Amino acid sequence: MATETLRVDAVVIGAGPGGYVAGIRLGQLKKKALVVEKDRPGGVCLNVGCIPSKALINASKLYDKLRHGGDIGILADNPRVDMPKMQGWKDEVVGKLTGGVRTLLKGNGVEIVEGAAKLEQPGPDGHRITVTSKAGTQTIVAKSVVLATGSRPTEIPGFKIDQQRILDSTGALALEAVPARLIVIGGGYIGLELGMVYAKFGSKVTVVEALPRVLANMDKDCVAVVERKLKKMGVEVLTETKAKSWEDKGDRAVLTVELRDGKTAALDADKILLSVGRRPNSEGLGLDAAGVAVDKRGYVIADDHLRTNVAGIYAIGDLIGGMMLAHKATKEGEVVAEVIAGHKAAFVVRTIPAVVFTDL
Ligand SMILES: Cc1cc2nc3c(=O)[nH]c(=O)nc-3n(C[C@H](O)[C@H](O)[C@H](O)COP(=O)(O)OP(=O)(O)OC[C@H]3O[C@@H](n4cnc5c(N)ncnc54)[C@H](O)[C@@H]3O)c2cc1C
C-alpha cells in the first residue's frame, strides 16, 4: 500500500449499494473520489443479503413447483436438493454482480481502496481518514466524506452467533445441507423469507416471534395472506413467544421459550436462525474523533441533504436508519454525490417501495 497521503475531493467509506453508487455518481460528476471497502464490494446486499437470498428463494420456488408438478400433470419424480451445488451457483451469481461493481467504479474513474477506514481529527487541509489493511496504513485527506458503512445483525444475550447452531442471515444463506428442523427467532421479513426457503426445501420450520404477529410493521391485510401461506406450508408460528435460552444437546439444540400464557416450552432444532433486526456499523469508525453525532441507537444523524452535524461529512444507507433497504441506500448515494457536487438535490421522498419475498 502506498504510504504517501492521498488527496481527493471525496472519499466514500463502504462499498454497499449506498456507497458504490455514491462513488459512481461522484465519478460521473467529475469529482476525484475513492471508495474504501474492508470486505468485498457490493456490501451486505450483493454478498450476504438481497442477491443471495433472492437466488435461494428462486431455487426453492422451482423445487417446490417441481414437487407439486404432479397436481397439474407435470411428473418430475423425486426431485432432490444438492445444497453444495446450489451454494456454488449462488456464489457465482454473487460473484458476477460484485465484479460488476468494480467495473462500474473503475469505468467512472473511481478506485476502490481495500481496508478498514477510520475518521481522525480533521486537519487544516480537510477531513482525514486512515485506512488499515494487511498491506499497512494509508492516510486519505478529503474535502468531503460519505459514511456508508451499513449495518449488521443484532444479537440477543445468550444467543451468540456461531454459524453452527446459532445462525445469522449470513450463516443461513451458506448452509451446505438442509436442516431437518429450523427455528427462526424473529418474524420480520428476513426471518420469514429464509424460513420459507428452508420450509420449501423440506425443513420443519418454527417461527418464534415476541410480538402479537409476524411482519409487525406491515399492512395487516397483506400479512394475513402471508400467515395463511405459512400455515398451508406447515410452518408453525408462535407469536407472543419469547426465546429465553438454548442448550446444545450434541445431536440437537433445545430452545426454551416463554409462551403467551407465561408457561415455558422446549423446542428441538438442528439450527436456530436469529433474525431479530439489524444495528448500524457506527462503532470503531472514529465518529467521536471527528465529532459526528449519532442517536441513542447508534445511527448517524443526517438531514435530508444527507449532511451530518459536521460540515463536509455525510451519511447514507442503513447507517442512518429509516427503511433499511438497498434501493433507499442507492437513492441516497445518488443524492449525496449531487449535493457534494453542488447540485440542488435532497432526499425527500413520499413513499419507499418495500417487497417481502416470502412466497412468489
Ligand atoms: C438477508 C437479507 C436480505 C435482504 N434483502 C433485501 C431486499 O430484498 N431488498 C432490499 O432492498 N434490501 C434487502 N436487504 C437490505 C439491504 O441489504 C441493505 O439495506 C443494504 O445492503 C444497505 O446498503 P448500505 O450501502 O447502506 O450498507 P451495506 O450493504 O451494509 O454496506 C456497507 C459496506 O461498508 C463496509 N464497511 C463497514 N465498515 C467499514 C469501514 N470501517 N471501512 C471500510 N468499509 C467498511 C462493509 O464491509 C460493507 O461492505 C437485505 C438484507 C439482508 C441481510
Distance between the termini: 47 Å
Residue windows where pLDDT falls under 50 for at least 5 positions: none
Q: Helix fraction? A: 25-40%
- Strand element count: 17
State the major sheet.
Answer: 7 strands, mixed
Helix-strand sequence: EHEHHHEEEEEEHEHEHEEEEEEHEH
Net shape: globular
DSSP helical segment count: 9
Q: What are the distinct ligands in this entry? A: flavin-adenine dinucleotide
Radius of gyration: 22 Å
Question: What is the residue-averaged pLDDT?
Answer: 96
Alpha-beta classification: alpha/beta
Approximately how much beta-strand content do the residues carry?
15-25%
Concise description?
Strand 12 and strand 13 form a beta hairpin.
Written description of the protein model:
It is a single chain. This protein has helices spanning 19-28, 43-48, 50-67, 83-107, 169-172, 189-200, 220-232, 287-290, 326-340; strands at residues 6-13, 33-37, 111-114, 116-119, 127-133, 136-147, 151-153, 166-167, 181-185, 204-208, 236-238, 242-248, 253-258, 264-269, 271-274, 278-280, 313-315. With 360 residues, the protein is an alpha/beta fold. The strands form four sheets. Strands 1, 2, 3, 4, 5, 6 and 17 form a seven-stranded mixed β-sheet that branches. It has a five-stranded parallel β-sheet with strand order 8-15-9-10-11. Strands 12-13-14 form a three-stranded antiparallel β-sheet, with no helix packed on it. Helix 3 packs parallel to helix 6. The longest helix has 25 residues, at 83-107. The mean pLDDT is 96. Residues 13-19, 36-39, 43-45, 49-50, 53, 116-117, 148-151, 169, 190, 281, 285, 317-319, 324-327, 329 line the site of flavin-adenine dinucleotide.
